[in-house]
Write a structure and sequence with these properties.
With 309 residues, the protein is α/β, with parallel strands linked by helices. It has 12 helices and 12 strands. The strands form 2 sheets. Strands 2-1-3-4-6-5-10 form a 7-stranded mixed β-sheet, with helices on both faces. A 5-stranded mixed β-sheet has the order 7-9-8-11-12, with helices on both faces. α2 links the parallel β1 and β2.
């Protein structure tokens, strides 16, 4: 099942659901004919779409707002914060081509701060599935909730049989004695490659799918910190406000320290290209990340300089 099929089945079964877009129909082309008046395209007017969605939610509807991530969460930010976040209305935000998935587009279309912006709004929940299978497994729970939520839409398949979704819980693929990788979104697949390469070097490597970023699974973060293993954060997001920041906040809250190596964009946009070229140029392929982790792990063992939160 894909994103469109899931929306179709859910909407046909639940009259409360309204599907909205701001002229971005790439993933929902079949829905206008099927849903009739319950499909609303406001044109390139994300602010209007969110304002309308808030009004519909006040009347008992559950709007799913689908648009390009940059314009959905930045152009309409004040409307999301004020009309949806403050009254905690059940408006569901679907951000298409977030992070590196906008690949060949320039900075105007690169959403590298979406997690930071959305998690900063009180009442707003934030979810970043690893792939389409993971996303289809979690969306029914998210849509049935009465809370506002933001979801990074990903249509790539991971080929991994994901565990059932539970709000506020990470998916634990494996625990490692030496290294543990925390990742969200489509980089899950690159993290799997990194894990395999490092294990080929004789290391014990864990992998955690941090698909629920708000609420976040604080227990897994504190558990990994207590283990003394090298912690890795991987995200196609600015280093400020994303997973690396979340880990830092949890460690400080619990008065813990850990050795953490972040993979994130450090105060710059990525160079537009096809996705594989973006990963290679920015150093996010499984092989490149494994090489850097090995270097950091060796330094850690030698008690050399490393990054400690």
């Amino acid at each position: 099942m894909d994103y469109q099929q899931l929306i179709k089945e859910t909407a046909l079964d639940n009259e409360r659901m309204i599907v909205m877009t701001a002229e971005n129909r790439a993933l929902v082309r079949e829905l206008p004919a099927l849903l009739g008046k319950r499909f609303i395209d406001t044109g390139i007017t994300e602010q209007t779409m969110i304002g309308m969605a808030a009004g519909l939610a006040l009347r008992g509807r559950i709007p799913i707002c689908h648009a390009l991530t940059t314009f959905l969460i930045m152009r309409a930010f004040e409307f999301i914060r004020t009309d949806v976040g403050i009254p905690a209305l059940p408006v569901k935000l679907s951000g298409f081509i977030p992070g590196f998935l906008s690949d060949a587009n320039g900075p105007t279309h690169q959403a590298l701060e979406d997690v930071a912006l959305m998690r900063g709004i009180p009442n707003m929940e934030v979810y970043c599935p690893a792939g389409q299978e993971d996303m289809v497994g979690m969306l029914p729970d998210i849509w049935s909730s009465e809370s506002p939520a933001y979801v990074r839409i990903v249509t790539r398949n991971t080929g991994y049989d994901h565990a059932p979704f539970e709000k506020g819980k990470a998916e634990i693929i494996a625990f490692g004695d030496d290294i543990n990788i925390l990742v969200y979104g489509f980089l899950f697949s690159e993290a799997m490659k990194t894990k395999e390469i490092l294990e080929g070097k004789g290391l014990s490597v864990g992998l955690i799918n941090m698909r629920s970023l708000k609420p976040v699974d604080e227990n897994i973060i504190t558990q990994l910190a207590a283990s003394g293993s090298l912690m890795i954060t991987m995200e196609d997001h600015f280093i400020c406000g994303g997973l690396y920041t979340i880990v830092a906040e949890v460690l400080l809250k619990n008065q813990l320290t850990a050795t953490v190596l972040p993979f994130a964009m450090k105060d710059k946009w990525f160079r537009p290209a096809l996705l594989d070229a973006v990963l290679e140029y920015e150093g996010f392929t499984g092989r490149q990340m494994a090489d850097k982790i090995l270097m950091t792990y060796s330094n850690k063992i030698k008690n050399a300089q490393y990054h400690t939160i």
